C-alpha cells in the first residue's frame, strides 16, 4: 500500500461527491478516484442482498488500483454492506458515512440523552444502522428515523430549493420528523446536503425554533485523514495538487452537469464502465483502469 | 416454438404489469412469465447503451424458456432497445409498446393531422421513437413530447392520486403538455395508467375541455394476439387458465404489495434472480428457471 495510491470514493450516483468536496478541502494532495454507479441508482429503495452485490462488484473492479483507502460514501451502501465489504477485502482499509454521521449528530446535540432525528433512504432506515451507531456514542440518546425516499430522485433530477415539488417533498418528510421535537437533525444520505438550506429553514419553521442540521461529509473526511495518519499513509503537504478521476456505470450527460452542484466546481466528463464489465470477470476493465490512471 | 410456450413480458419494474393485465383479459389461456428488473430500475433516466445491455441480459437469461413471444413492456426499453433485441435474437418474436401507444393516440384523435401530446420518460422523449411511430400512421400529425421523469419514482413509491406530491408533479408536467392544446394525450410509459384518472381530470381542467387520454396496454395485447394468431400459436379457448410467474432482480416486499395496484388482483411473491446471475453466464439461472417453471 503506497502513500501515492489513490483514495477510492464510491456511491450509487452523485451524492458521494459531497464527501469528495470535504476530502479535497482537508487533504488537497491526495489523488481521488470517484465511482458513481449511475446505471443502477438509486440504492435506497433496494434490498440488502442487491446492494451488497453492487458494492462488492465495484470494489472488486477497483481493487487493482491498490487504493490506500476506500470510502463507501453512500449511507445506504454503508448501512447494508460495510461489514461485508470489510470481510471480503480484509487487505483493504474501508470506511463508511454512517459512523461519521452519527458522530456529527451526537456532537451537535451537545447534551447527553439528546433527541436525534435522522432522515434517510428507506433501506438505511430499515437497517437501523443509525440507531446502533448513535447508541454506541450516546446510549441515552433518543433516535427517530424518517424515510425520505423521493428526495434522491428529486435531487438527481436536478431540482433545487426553488422548485415547488422539492419544497413540498421536504415539507412532507420534515413534518413527520418535526413531531418528535428533535434537538438535531442528521442528513443520513449524502445527497441531502444539496437541499440543506431548504431543510434547515423548513425544520426551524415547523419546530418554531432553530434546530441544527448536520451531515456526515466533513466528519467522514476527518475520519479518513485520521486513518491515513495512523497508517503513515498521508501525502505530505507542499506536494502537487491531487487529481480527481470520476468513473460512472452510465455515461449520462447529467453527471458532469450536476456534479458541479455537489462539488462546488466543474469536473471533466467522467469515464464510462459498462455494468457488464463490472460483473463478467474479464481482465479488460482492470487493464482499462490501469491505462487510464 | 410450441403453442404451450409462455409469453415473456419484461419491464424495469412494475409498469409492465399493466400490459399483463390486458393480456390476461384478452388471452386468459396463455402462460405468462413476467420479469421486473427491480434491482436496476428506473430505466427512464439512463442511456441507450445501458438500457440495451440490460434488455439483452434479460432476454438471454429467459431464452431457454423458448418463449413464443417476448413483449418489451417498457416504453424506454422499447424506444432504445427493440431493434437491437430483434437483431440479437432473430429466432424470437419480439414486440414493444411504442407502436401500440402511437396507434392508440392516432385512433383516439379520430381526425387526420391531429395534435398528439405524449408524456414519457426522459430517455423515451430523447429517442424520438413516438414521433417516428406516429408519423408512420399519420404523417400530418403534430406531435409534442413532454418528459415527466419523476412520475415513475412517485408511482414506484406507492403514491396515488390522493397524494399532494403526485398531484403537484402531474400538474407541473401537464401544464407544459396543455400549452400545446392537444387533441389527445398518450401515456408513453407503462407506469402512468396508475395515475390515469388524476391525469385525465388535470388535463381537462388545464385545457378547459375533455381531452382523451390513452395508453398502450390494450393495443399492445391486441398486437400480441394478432402476431400469435398469424403464427398459429394461440392457445385455444376452453383450455386451462394460464399461469402467471413473476421474476424480479430485487426481491423487494414492495413488488408483491404494489403489483396488485397494477394488475387489479394479488399475486404470489415473485422469485428472485440476482443481477450477478444475469451477467455471469453460469448455467445455474437457466437450471433454476427450468426447475421452477
Molecular structure report:
The structure is a homodimer of 293-residue chains. By secondary structure, chain A is α/β, with parallel strands linked by helices. Chain A has 2 domains: 7-97 and 218-292, Rossmann fold, CATH 3.40.50; 98-215, Rossmann fold (3-Layer(aba) Sandwich). Helices cover 47% and strands 14% of the residues of chain A. The first copy, chain A, has helices at residues 17-26, 48-62, 75-88, 98-109, 122-127, 129-137, 151-156, 164-178, 196-207, 217-230, 253-263, 275-279, 284-292, and strands at residues 7-11, 32-36, 69-72, 94-95, 115-120, 142-147, 184-187, 213-215, 244-248, 271-272. In chain A, the strands form 2 sheets. Chain A has a 6-stranded parallel beta sheet, sandwiched between helices. Chain A has a 4-stranded parallel beta sheet with strand order 6-5-7-8, sandwiched between helices. In chain A, helix 9 (196-207) links the parallel strand 7 (184-187) and strand 8 (213-215). Chain A is globular and about 50 Å long. The two termini of chain A are 16 Å apart.
Amino acid at each position: 500500500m503506497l502513500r501515492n495510491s489513490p483514495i477510492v470514493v464510491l456511491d450509487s450516483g452523485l451524492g458521494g461527491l459531497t464527501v469528495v468536496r470535504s476530502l479535497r478541502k482537508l487533504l488537497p494532495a491526495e489523488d481521488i478516484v470517484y465511482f458513481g454507479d449511475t446505471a443502477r441508482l438509486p440504492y435506497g429503495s433496494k434490498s440488502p442482498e442487491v446492494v451488497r452485490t453492487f458494492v462488492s462488484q465495484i470494489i472488486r473492479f477497483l481493487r487493482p488500483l491498490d487504493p490506500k483507502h476506500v470510502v463507501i460514501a453512500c449511507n445506504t451502501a454503508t448501512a447494508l454492506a460495510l461489514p461485508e465489504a470489510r470481510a471480503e477485502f480484509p487487505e483493504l482499509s474501508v470506511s463508511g458515512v454512517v459512523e461519521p454521521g452519527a458522530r456529527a449528530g451526537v456532537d451537535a446535540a451537545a447534551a447527553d440523552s439528546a433527541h436525534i432525528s435522522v432522515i434517510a433512504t428507506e433501506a438505511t432506515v430499515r437497517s437501523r444502522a443509525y440507531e446502533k451507531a448513535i447508541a454506541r456514542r450516546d446510549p441515552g440518546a433518543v433516535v427517530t428515523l424518517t424515510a425520505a425516499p423521493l428526495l434522491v430522485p428529486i435531487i438527481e433530477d436536478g431540482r433545487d430549493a426553488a422548485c415547488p415539488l422539492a419544497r413540498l417533498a421536504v415539507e412532507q418528510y420534515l413534518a413527520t420528523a418535526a413531531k418528535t421535537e428533535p434537538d438535531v437533525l442528521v442528513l443520513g444520505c449524502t445527497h441531502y446536503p444539496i437541499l440543506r438550506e431548504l431543510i434547515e429553514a423548513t425544520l426551524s419553521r415547523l419546530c418554531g425554533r432553530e434546530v441544527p442540521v448536520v451531515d456526515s461529509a466533513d466528519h467522514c473526511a476527518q475520519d479518513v485523514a485520521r486513518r491515513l495518519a495512523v497508517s503513515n499513509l498521508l501525502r505530505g503537504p507542499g506536494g502537487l495538487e491531487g487529481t480527481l478521476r470520476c468513473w460512472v456505470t452510465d455515461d449520462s450527460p447529467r453527471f458532469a452537469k450536476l456534479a458541479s452542484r455537489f462539488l462546488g466546481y466543474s469536473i471533466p466528463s467522467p469515464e464510462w464502465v459498462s455494468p457488464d464489465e463490472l460483473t463478467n470477470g474479464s481482465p479488460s476493465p482492470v487493464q482499462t483502469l490501469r491505462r487510464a490512471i
